[in-house]
Amino acid sequence: MVKWKEEMLIEAPIEQVWSLFQDEQIQRIMPKIESHELLEGKNDATGAKHAQVYTEGKQQQRYIVETLSYVDEPGRKYRETAFVMGQMFKVRYAFTLEKKSAQRTRFVYEGQNKGMNVTGKMMLLAGSKKAARNTVLNFMNRVKDQAEREN
């Protein structure tokens, strides 16, 4: 299993950062997602299920993403999602935003990838921890850049 938890400060209002995590904006921070279609429930709500198509190089993955938790309070925002990728990995991740001031937001990104079978577990063991961390940090920096660009 691979776990991560990273945080950073973003120089933008919490509502501006949070808008990037809304379903209709997801491709701004996750550009490899080609489609994000609501299947069940309501957008931006606990229990929502979306069909996603994700492309990495020439490989395309299709999976169902479920929103496990969704909190939208003035000073704190939280979204937790999970999906199964390729019948090999169970992925779970969460975004937390906390208002530090009118123009500053604390962003926490945490999650885990868990192998569901021997092949998935071996692939995670063989993967580079440094590369996995870089993927997480690259995502967080994309969020920061998008949020601060609007500020």
Number of helices: 4
Number of DSSP strand runs? 7
Q: Per the principal axes of the C-alpha atoms, what is the gross shape?
A: globular
Pattern of helices and strands: EHHEEEEEEHH
Terminal CA distance? 37 Å
Radius of gyration from the CA trace?
16 Å
The portion of residues forming beta strands comes to: over 45%
Q: Which range best describes the helical content: under 10%, 10-25%, 25-40%, 40-55%, 55-70% or over 70%?
A: 25-40%
Question: Are there runs of 5+ residues with pLDDT below 50, and where?
Answer: none
Strand order of the largest sheet: 1-7-6-5-4-3-2
Q: Which secondary structure elements does this structure contain, and how are they paired or packed?
A:
Blueprint (H helix, E strand, L loop, with lengths): L1 E9 L3 H6 L6 H4 L3 E8 L8 E8 L2 E14 L3 E10 L3 E13 L2 E12 L2 H9 L2 H22 L1
How would you portray this structure in words?
The chain is of the alpha+beta class and 151 residues long. The chain is built from four helices and seven strands. A seven-stranded antiparallel β-sheet has the order 1-7-6-5-4-3-2. β3 and β4 form a beta hairpin. It is globular. The mean pLDDT is 93.
List keywords for this structure.
151 residues; alpha+beta; 7-stranded antiparallel sheet; 4 helices; globular
In short:
By secondary structure, the protein is of the alpha+beta class. Helix content is 27%, strand content 49%.
